[in-house]
Amino acid sequence: NIAGDHEEKAVVAILKKAISDSDPDIKHYAATTLIGIEEKFEKNILKLKEQYKQKPDAETALKIMELYDRYIHSGVLDENYKKTIFAEYLELLRKSKNMFADSFEISAKLLHAYLELRMFERAEQLLAEFRQLWPEQGLFNFLAMNFYFRLNDYKQVASHASRIKESGLELPDEYKQVVNYWS
């Protein structure tokens, strides 16, 4: 939920700012609330991991991934702990990709993680797999746009945007805006 994620980040940003307030009650409330948010993420991740251990399936794996992604990007984590959580997330992505090799969504999440970590060689290898496994999948071109954008290869970004536009693929509105901009 994109709107929810933005609201979550905004709340965390306000709480982090409130920690440096001169009023001790505000500081205490902000710190307690931030700890509560972090604990809720941790608890929900553990709960889903237990569910996944009982019955490993792609749907549960995707739920865990969504939760990890929200947690990592919520702003609640300090940089050192964020690296630890991201390492756990990456391990889950890799294992899930091996278990559910036919899942476009899991592979796409792994590609995004590689790009975020600036692991461009691995991202490029994964993109080549996408091309082989899902050549007709229009979202492949959108993922390729993201990859080439991270490499500052804007000519390739525009090329993939044009392919998407020519294909007539139905995209969510936020994707359409990006494609229209680059094509």
Account of the protein in words:
This protein is an all-alpha fold and 183 residues long. The protein has 2 domains: 1-77, no CATH class; 101-183, Serine Threonine Protein Phosphatase 5, Tetratricopeptide repeat, CATH 1.25.40. Helix content is 81%, strand content 0%. The protein contains 9 helices and no strands. The protein is globular, with a radius of gyration of 19 Å. The chain starts with a helix and ends with a helix.
Poorly predicted regions are none
N-to-C CA distance: 27 Å
Q: How large is the count of helical segments?
A: 9
| Proper CATH architecture of the largest domain | Alpha Horseshoe
CATH class designation of the largest domain: Mainly Alpha
Averaged pLDDT: 90
Instruction: Give the total of beta strands.
Output: 0
Reading the helices and strands in chain order gives: HHHHHHHHH
Number of domains: 2
| Helix/strand class | mainly alpha
User: In the CATH scheme, what's the topology name of the largest domain?
Assistant: Serine Threonine Protein Phosphatase 5, Tetratricopeptide repeat
Fraction in helix: over 70%
Main sheet summary: none
Shape: globular
Computed over alpha carbons, the radius of gyration is 19 Å
- Content of β-strand: under 5%
